[in-house]
Amino acid sequence: MTLLFKKITGLGAIALLSLGLAACGNEEDTQDDTTSAPEANSVGESVDYKITGIDPGAGLMAATEKAIEDYELEDWSVIAGSSAAMTASLQKAYENEEPIIVTGWTPHWKFAKFDLKYLEDPKEVFGGEEEIRTIGRLGLQEDLPEAHQILSQFNWTQDDMGEVMIAIQDGEKEDVASQKWVESNEDKVAEWIKGVEKVDGDEIKLAYVAWDSEIASHNVMKIVLEDMGYDVNLVQVEAGPLWTAIADGSADASLAAWMPLTHKTYADKFEGDFEELGVNMTGVRIGLVVPTYMDITSVEDLK
To answer: CA-to-CA distance for 133 and 201, rounded, in angstroms?
Structure first.
């Protein structure tokens, strides 16, 4: 009986030891699995699978929706808002070193204030470098020839625009920041108004979107046109109504046509109903932007 008990006890110990080793092995396997799974899902989970966007009518928002589709990011969504709301969310996250993904464009003051990077876009959904073009209603040259010439001759650099944007962001009023830039850049303004005679109170309406870049350009142009005798009315609208206003003649011109991709839908829709006056800035771009402390480099990483 004693011998039998010892044998049973020995077998039980072996069985328990085997189970223990198996459990350890399973625990190690489980740990291996759990170390990789959260890493794969960490980006999406950390931002609730949300991209912080701007106004819903912007071409940038349409491009972001297309990126979600083309990169098969089924769990993701882009949250519409405004340029101001987007930058406020970005600033809050940045100050706390929290993850965030936003729709972005260059030029913009946020790249001077924060360490940011564009996510690579191997499918080129957001396109490459773009241009900001000036557009006008049909008949503008006949009705307001001096303004047409000024608008056609207008062009500046991202650094120029950046000076105005940063001044506004730092607390200066839009007209004050624009006036200071005009006074400090008389040589550039002289090129815009070259060969143009002053007018006496002619009215002109400029339409623009509420992007910091376009706020800067249109307020600077307002100062220039007013100095040339124009009564300038700035109208802030979303992208769709902007192009509609130019096409139906309810606005005279805009400096805010991002081409060839961002506003392609509108340009195609209203083809023949507007005039391109010229390129006022080159080398601009759009895309998805994150703080540099986030360990992702491509839109594909969101999968």
So the answer is: 26
Which amino acid does the sequence have at 85?
Answer: A
pLDDT tens per residue across span 224-282: 999 999 999 999 999 999 999 999 999 999 999 999 989 999 999 999 999 999 999 99
Tokens at 108, concatenated: 């913009």
Interatomic CA distance for residues 166 and 169, integer angstroms: 5
Q: Is the pLDDT confidence value at 151 over 70?
A: yes
Task: Give the angle subtended at the CA of 36 by the CAs of 30 and 42, to the nearest 5°.
Answer: 125
Lowest mean pLDDT among 8-22, 115-129, 152-166, 274-288: 8-22
Instruction: Give the orientation angle of helix 212-227 with respect to helix 145-153, to 10 degrees.
Output: 130
pLDDT given for residue 41 in this prediction? 53
Contact call for residues 123 and 71 (beta carbons, < 8 A): yes
Amino acid present at 119: L
pLDDT digits (tens, 9 = 90+) for 37-74: 334 457 999 999 999 999 988 889 999 999 999 999 99
Q: Residue 284 carries which side chain, given as an amino acid letter?
A: V
How far is it, in rounded angstroms, from Cα 68 to Cα 125?
10
> What is the Cα Rg of the chain in Å?
29
Q: What is the pTM of this model?
A: 0.80
SS3 content of the chain, % helix, strand, coil (to 5): 50, 20, 30
**Distances 18 to 8, 13, 108 between C-alpha atoms, Å:** 15, 8, 64
Q: What is the largest CA-CA distance in the chain?
A: 121
Q: What is the pLDDT of residue 57?
A: 83
Task: Count CB-CB contacts under 10 A for residue 45.
Answer: 12
Contacts of 107 (CB under 8 A, 6+ apart): 158, 161, 162, 165, 213, 281, 284
Cis peptide, bond prior to residue 241, ω within 30 of zero: no
Contact of 278 with 149, CB cutoff 8 Å: no
Question: What kind and span of H or E run contains 192?
Answer: helix 186-192
- Tokens found for residue 243: 């192009």
